[in-house]
Design brief:
Layout lengths: L11 E3 L6 E8 L3 H16 L5 E8 L7 H12 L3 H13 L1 H4 L9 H15 L8 H6 L4 H15 L7 E4 L2 E2 L9 H8 L4
Helix pairs in contact: 2-3, 2-5, 2-7
């Protein structure tokens, strides 16, 4: 079975698609290692603002993180086509990861998760308190799900099986991982800019 061609590129890019240095970061919203890496990823995005470096966040779903799928769909629904908003909401979710991590949801339902997502979205942006977010996240055939699936399929095509996984200019960079510092990132990126 072939995968459908998505209507737009996967992920949420900060920076120019024409930048000579293209960074891709694959994260899972329930993954503690992705959460650990995220502040440094944000610092990298801020450090290299401009037209020389682009950084794209891809929210993917690892098989052992059952809450991650609905959270990924929520990011897609809230961001629409605003990459900065996606990055901000991902940051907000990581701040509240303990609320939806496996331990917190051991005896809870998917309905409980969707209610939590609505609550977290309303905290992030009070205008979302009256939105149809729960319906968008619940709709397994809608545009939000289709776009979220495209991100997951893209990760599969890149052979991403753990998070965080970092690519620069299409090549996996195994020396950058959850405990990498800003200096570690600079050592890889600075020679390219």
């Amino acid at each position: 079975m072939s995968m459908p061609v998505p209507s737009r590129p996967s992920g949420f890019r900060l920076g120019s698609g024409d930048a000579p240095v293209q960074v891709e970061v694959f994260v899972d919203l329930e993954c503690p290692f992705s959460k650990k890496a995220w502040p440094t990823v944000l610092a990298v995005a801020n450090q290299y603002k401009g037209d020389r470096v682009s950084i794209t966040a891809h929210s993917i779903v690892l098989c052992d993180h059952r809450q991650s799928w609905d959270l990924t769909k929520a990011v897609v629904a809230i961001a629409v086509d605003d990459s900065l908003r996606a990055w901000q909401f991902i940051s907000h979710l990581y701040q509240h990861q303990a609320d939806y991590a496996l331990e917190a949801f051991d005896h809870k339902t998917r309905h409980d998760l969707r209610q939590l997502i609505e609550d977290l979205a309303a905290q992030f942006d009070p205008a979302l308190s009256n939105s149809d977010l729960a319906a968008q996240v619940s709709d397994e055939e809608g545009a939000v799900t289709s776009r979220a699936k495209a991100s997951v399929r893209y990760a599969i095509s890149r052979v991403v099986w753990s998070t965080p996984t970092i690519f620069i200019n299409g090549s996996p960079i195994s020396e950058l991982e959850s405990s990498s510092t800003m200096s570690d990132w600079q050592a890889v990126i600075d020679p390219m800019v």
